[in-house]
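Can anyone check this?
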Amino acid sequence: MPTPLVYVVDDDEGMLDSVAWLLASVELECSCFQDGAAFLEAFDPERPSCVILDVRMPTMDGFELFDLIRKRRIIVPIIFVTANANVPMAVKAMQHGSFNFIEKPYVPQDLLDLISQALAKSETDLQQRKQKLDFLNRFQLLSNRELEVLREVVKGKQSKIIAHDLGISCKTVDAHRSSIREKFNSTSVAELVNEVLTHKREWCEEL
C-alpha cells in the first residue's frame, strides 16, 4: 500500500502553509492547491488519501468541487473546513457524503484526528476496490460452462445434482469445479463460495 497523502485545497495561502506545517509535524505528506482544477489534475486514485477542502473559494467553491469529485466517481474522504460555518452549510456537507466538517479556527489535534480517521477509511476503501478488481479479473477467466457450474455451486448443489441439471457427467462437473477453484486460487469450495458471496454485487452484474 502506498504511503498516504493529504490534499489541501484552499485559496488562502496562509491556511495552506499552516496545514502543511501541522501535517509535517506528524510526518504526514501533503499536497496543496489554491483551486479545484489543479487538485483534480493531480489527484492519484491509487494512493490512500483525504482532502481538506475550503468551502468558500473564488472560481470554484468547495461544494462545486465536491460535486465534480462525485460525478467523476472519485472515492476519497472529504473534510470541509470554513471560517463562515453555519448549521445549514454543515448539514449540506454531510448530506452530500462528506467525511466531516470542521470550523476555523480549529483545534489542531481535532483536525489531525479527523485526518487520521479519513486516511484509515481511504486505505480500507482502496483495499476493497483492489480486491473487487482482482475478483473480476479472475471471474473473466471462467468459461461459459464454468460460469454455469459456479452458479449452481453457489446455490449449494452437489455435483451429481449439477450434472443432472446441466446434462453432463458428474466427472465433468468435478473437473469444472477443480478448474474454477484453481482460477480463483481457492483451496476449497467453501472458500470459493465465501469469496463469490462477498462480491455478490459484481457477481450479479456479470451474470
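Reply from J.R.: I decoded it. The chain has two domains: 5-126, 141-206.
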